[in-house]
Amino acid sequence: MSKSLNLFLPAAGGTALVLGAAYGIATSQYADSAVDSMSAQIEIAEAEAAKATEAATAELARATELEMKALEIQDAARRQLAAASGGSVSEPAPRSASGYGLGRKALPEEIAAWDIDVLPDGRGLPKGSGDVFTGEEVFAEKCASCHGDFAEGVDNWPVLAGGFDTLADKDPVKTVGSYWPYLSTVWDYVHRSMPFGAAQTVTADETYAIVAYILYSNDVVGDDFELSHENFLDVQMHNATGFIVDDRADTEYSIWRSEPCMENCKDSVEITMRASVLDVTPEDEGADAAEEQASATEEATSEPTVVAAVDPELIKAGEKTFKRCASCHAVGAGAKNKSGPQLNNLIGRTMGGVDGFKYSDVFKAAAAEGRVWDEESLGAFLTKPKAYMKGTKMAFSGFKSQDDIDAIVAYLKAQTGG
Question: Under CATH, which architecture does the 304-413 domain have?
Answer without folding.
Answer: Orthogonal Bundle (1.10)
